[in-house]
């Protein structure tokens, strides 16, 4: 499994980083995990072909995690000339929220005729769901108000497991979501200061043994956490453009 962090930032661009967007590179059957507002900028910066992205899996419906979808869909129609379907998988309520977002960004764009279909999958927590051939996503409910359920994701792909906390304060469902994953990407907003609905390094560090992931990468960091990234142990700090290959 090859993973490239196209965007590793928080909602506010701390450290000059792009919003959350991770690419799982499978050639012409690739997929994104989250598609934050700056996703198309990051896709262009890192030379990714948008038409190679077959599916977008969303953890929750905040702008820094799904706000790039209108630009992605309009680019597919007007610039990249997409013809094959695009699948978007995310929380229950995705359909109505995506329509509202499209209309807010580009009025009239949600119902325009396209050369390709946008197929939506609303994930049911605890139910493994095929989002691509040989790629299964299981959602876990977390604690991060976003207007619809916020999710952690456990994605089985090509014999490997990628787990992602999404944004959340600590909940025990993260243990199951990340248990023995080949790669856990964990939100880590602060070093040890408690911020409601977000994770901090001190809390995560105490749970690493329970999660038992093989590799842990911390993302979505505030200036506080970025400034103390050199102090972390048993994990690593994300940055835009980080390439990870899981053998």
Characterization of this structure:
The protein has 247 residues and is an alpha/beta fold. It has one domain (2-245): Metallo-beta-lactamase, Chain A. It has 7 helices and 14 strands. It has helices spanning 39-45, 63-66, 69-78, 94-105, 173-178, 201-211, 223-227; strands at residues 2-7, 21-24, 30-33, 53-57, 86-90, 118-122, 129-132, 135-141, 151-157, 160-164, 183-187, 216-219, 236-237, 243-245. The strands form 2 sheets. A 7-stranded mixed beta sheet has the order 6-5-4-3-2-1-14. The protein has a 7-stranded mixed beta sheet with strand order 7-8-9-10-11-12-13. The N and C termini lie close together (7 Å). The model has no long low-confidence stretch (mean pLDDT 97).
